[in-house]
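Q: what sequence does this backbone want?
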């Protein structure tokens, strides 16, 4: 998914209700979700950042991804997470510390799928995610929520569910470019291997495996610009009466 070139997004409006954005890493979920939320004056929640923050807490406690579930769950239960929902400046705090940059690093990326696979961890964070969305909607704001199981598990009643997909090669190239831009090391072959590894783990875990909800709109972003995807989402929201 390229930058500003491509289809010009339709005019925005006020987003009412919740949009669930799912798909594997590198499909453009974060970029598109944030722009979608901004266009609709809505809250934005990156649920993946919450799992990454818990993973960081696990690593800081001296455990690794292979630690027993009860030990991981105990850390997750006591970790103080704060998720900023402003799409213009999303943030994630762990125990009062901004960890947005640290959770994108190699150690967390390598461990997050294993930590996220624990059913007790997922139950805990799903409850927190639903609470955050409820707060946003109660405050007369819509919400764009991104992750891997939003439409299928976290918010199965969301009126608009989107599942973004792209080839592993395209997603690896995007992630490597993002890492380089952020000053992180990025070997394309290594990134591609990690993308495939995470796809396998996320799609085969017993609890909340990665897949499109039956009623989700599936968009392949291999050849689509950010603007083209955004225009499609805005049009869908207008059609369903969510953006006025």
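A:
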């Amino acid at each position: 998914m390229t930058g500003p070139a491509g289809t010009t997004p339709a005019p925005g409006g006020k987003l009412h209700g919740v949009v669930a954005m799912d798909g594997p890493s590198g499909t453009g979920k974060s970029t598109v979700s944030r722009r979608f939320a901004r266009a609709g004056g809505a809250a934005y929640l990156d649920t993946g950042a919450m799992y990454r923050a818990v993973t960081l807490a696990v690593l800081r406690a001296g455990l690794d991804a292979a630690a027993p579930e009860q030990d991981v769950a105990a850390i997750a239960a006591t970790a103080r997470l704060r998720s900023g929902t402003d799409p213009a400046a999303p943030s994630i705090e762990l125990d009062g510390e901004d960890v947005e940059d640290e959770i994108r690093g190699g150690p967390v990326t390598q461990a997050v799928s294993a930590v996220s696979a624990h059913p007790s961890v997922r139950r805990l964070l799903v409850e927190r995610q639903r609470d955050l969305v409820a707060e946003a909607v109660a405050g007369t704001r819509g919400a764009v929520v991104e992750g891997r199981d939003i439409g299928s598990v976290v918010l199965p009643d969301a009126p608009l569910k989107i599942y973004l997909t792209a080839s592993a090669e395209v997603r690896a190239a995007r992630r490597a470019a993002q890492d380089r831009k952020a000053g992180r090391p990025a070997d394309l072959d290594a990134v591609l291997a990690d993308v495939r590894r995470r796809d396998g783990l996320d799609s085969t875990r017993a609890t909340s495996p990665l897949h499109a909800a039956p009623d989700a709109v599936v968009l392949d972003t291999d050849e689509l610009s950010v603007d083209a995807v955004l225009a499609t989402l805005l049009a869908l929201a207008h059609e369903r009466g969510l953006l006025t």
